[in-house]
Design brief:
The structure holds two protein chains of two kinds. By secondary structure, chain A is mainly β. Chain A is built from no helices and eleven strands. In chain A, a hairpin with a 2-residue loop joins β5 and β6. By secondary structure, chain B is mainly β. The chains are: A mainly beta, B mainly beta.
Chain lengths: 114, 116
Amino acid sequence: EPEVTQTPSHQVTQMGQEVILRCVPISNHLYFYWYRQILGQKVEFLVSFYNNEISEKSEIFDDQFSVERPDGSNFTLKIRSTKLEDSAMYFCASTQGRSNQPQHFGDGTRLSIL
Amino acid sequence: AQKVTQAQTEISVVEKEDVTLDCVYETRDTTYYLFWYKQPPSGELVFLIRRNSFDEQNEISGRYSWNFQKSTSSFNFTITASQVVDSAVYFCALSEASGGGNKLTFGTGTQLKVEL
């Protein structure tokens, strides 16, 4: 069964550094998402992306964050000038269609900011 | 604004017991979708079920069953004859059809512990 793939599985970065989290969505999916889960807390929506542009973003997704689909397969989340509170599990998800389709999640990237 | 409430933070049961996880949602949309996801200790999010707001039929899949009641805005999940492998955090989630990005709003999750 096709999967959403995320790399790396764990990223350790010094505070203030930039980090790029990578995702390869399922190949025929058209909608892409990033979510965040701070340890022990609920999963929070960050951003959705369709047709090469952001379709919705949360309050969390401020100017520190950006997303890009640099080629036909990758979907990246860039966090500039990381802060301690950015430490979390970041999940990428994709879906073929709109809200009637389940979002398929990758295994996540655990981001640790030191 | 959409909201999902899972009032049960943690439930512990003995193997073979039945257990029901509660989910209550809020939305102004008439068309919306409800989901359950499982997060085992390994951390990934596993899709379990999707329900749309027009389909109130209960669903059974093996030991899992779901009870959707629009009158009480609830979408509860029952595991029959629980097993140790069911131990995980279970998240209920909501997506509104009117939302441009189809974002999922998750509840805070229920930690289920199944012991021998």
